[in-house]
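Re: the request from the purification team.
They wanted to know what the chain is likely to look like in 3D before they choose a buffer screen. I agreed to run a prediction and write the result into the notebook, where they can find it.
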Amino acid sequence: MLRKRLFHLSQLAAVGFTGYFVGQYKDRLCSGEDKIFLDGRALKNLPGLPIFGTVSAATAFVEGGSNRDRSSQIMKYGFPSLENIRSFDDYVLSYDRRNRVPNWVFEHLTKSHIAPNDQIDRSKCEFMPDESIHPFFRSQNSDYKGSGFDRGHMAAAGNHRIAQKHVEQTFYLTNMAPQVGQGFNRNAWNRLEKHVRKLTNVYDNVYCCTGPLYLPKKESDGKSYVKYQVIGANTVAVPTHFYKVVVGESANGTLAMEAYVMPNQKIPDETPVSAFMVPPESIERAAGLLFFDRIHRSKLNCINGKKV
């Protein structure tokens, strides 16, 4: 009889201890003290994970510790998505492994980032494959050779003049997409990049997101199709269009947004950059991304030069 009572008491004690530890674990989960593991890395207090219903994450997926603060600064207003994030010293990108081009590339510009610097020598930069990408999904210089397309920068080399290493990192092929050369990459697209740099004369901080689009076109049968060329042995996708979404931040915190879409084709030199302005939500719908989602649109002073 005594043995039976002792057995029941031990069962009750086990249940009590189990309940206690489960409660402690649940409390830690709710308070955000537990870590979430992703790709072998422990991530702590990251509201940007999709299970929490947002893509904002100003401290997510940074390699090493030296550029952690810089990456957080670049992504201050949120990540458009959290797919295959790659963080460099002066820009952050999301890589599209299927198409072998970026999904998006984010930059933060100030006057100091674009100022002439005698220590920077672009001629020393070489286009190079990004060996952090699995070989199955990596683009190579050979893919572009003889294709008729330029290796078009998403994060422009001219935006990263503080250090030689910064400009060299813009030559990784993960930052490239095939662009028509004459009439686009070397002309119209270059003018848009220069326009973004000039915005640092107006705003203290300029945040720029750049990437490719694959837009549908109506064919002769009346149906719409998404068609794009691929180049090289690794079938690198040739985007039909490219976008830039830019936010300028004044010293007093005032924010303004500009959004552009350019077709990947020859564009007449006389075409003004403003001709390519579009509503930012049209790019979001086409790209499947949310830009600057930490900024409510009502907080923007103007969009494409028009008062909100």
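For the purification team: Residues 60 and 91 are 14 Å apart (CA to CA).
Please add any questions underneath this entry.
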